[in-house]
Amino acid sequence: MDLLLDIALLALLLTTAISIAWIKDLFAAAMLAGIYGLLSAGFFMTMGAVDVAFTEAAVGAGISPLLILLTLALCGRRQRADRNRARLAIFLVIPVGALLVTATADMPAFGAADAPAQVHVAPHYIQQSMSEIGIPNIVTSVLASYRGFDTLGEVVVIFTAGLGVLSLLMASATNPLQTNPQISVRGQSRDIVLRVVAKVLIAPIMLYALYVQFHGEYGPGGGFQAGVIFAVGFILYGLVFGLEAVRKVASHDLVQLLSAVGVLVYGCIGLLSLAEGKNFLDYSALAGDPVSGQHIGIIIIELGVGMTVASVMIMVFYLFSAQLQRGQREEISEDDGTSSEPEATSIAVTESLQRGAS
């Protein structure tokens, strides 16, 4: 039964991937990308990687398609026909795919007891994790403590990616973060059902994010997953009630500050360990009892991870939304002069969105 499920998921993944590459409608491709992320999460679940599945479901099927849709609002829905570029992509993908398939022949079978990872570090993690770290979730022990320095690198990569997006989008305009309140108000959803449902869902989303944040020691979750869920709550609020409304709760400057503070919190824990005469990110230096120190250190660094991940996701959403509003303002300014009235402004914005979608 498990083999049939794996074959079905793999077939659906392959079909979805080919459809994304083949289809010319970028909106449909964005929806298929979300489906691909959800299927990938299911595939990770069948392999027992629950934490990875959790992250893939939140990012691959949640945040990523939303950012792709914001990009489509800026560049249009239809892909331009460029046969030369398509041929170049195929020319690059086929050799790389062949090399990857060839490399799998040297890999041990999935779950093999004699695999290098199973005989090198896994026995120590499984047998000693509870006595050294003191938490039931071995995945959190590995990511937050045993491989804490590697996880710090991942957080820095996320922060650097946010800075890259910030630099690129801010370089494309003189005032990339300036928004038009009139457009923001008109951009709010007028669907009363959507507004009520959003108000009902946002509080449980935030509460669930807190649960995931502080429950990572005992089950699937942690700072990465919780940060994405926090970001989803803010992004949902911004989509339904407008960009200016969500910025009143978390301004762009505050989000930028928190994205850096999360990395600093993580790094300062390592410096504190050094100051106490221990190794970098050795949390046992944070308390008299080594196990208690591990608990304290993991909670603090996971909080830093959650702050950085959530802040970077929200910052990217702010930047793309501001770029979209800037494009709307430019189209309105080129109108025939009737855009000074609020009703005409709303019509102009609607027409610009329709032209972008077509």
UniProtKB/TrEMBL annotation:
Keyword Cell membrane assigned: yes
Topology in membrane: Multi-pass membrane protein
Question: Where does the MrpA C-terminal/MbhD domain start and stop, copy by copy?
Answer: 11-74
Segments of this protein annotated with the region Disordered? 330-358
Q: Which PANTHER family does the protein's record reference?
A: NA(+)/H(+) ANTIPORTER SUBUNIT B (PTHR33932), NA(+)_H(+) ANTIPORTER SUBUNIT B (PTHR33932:SF4)
| Similarity annotation | Belongs to the CPA3 antiporters (TC 2.A.63) subunit B family.
Q: What is this protein called?
A: DUF4040 domain-containing protein
Q: Which organism is it from?
A: Microbulbifer hydrolyticus
The major lineage groups are: Bacteria, Pseudomonadati, Pseudomonadota, Gammaproteobacteria, Cellvibrionales
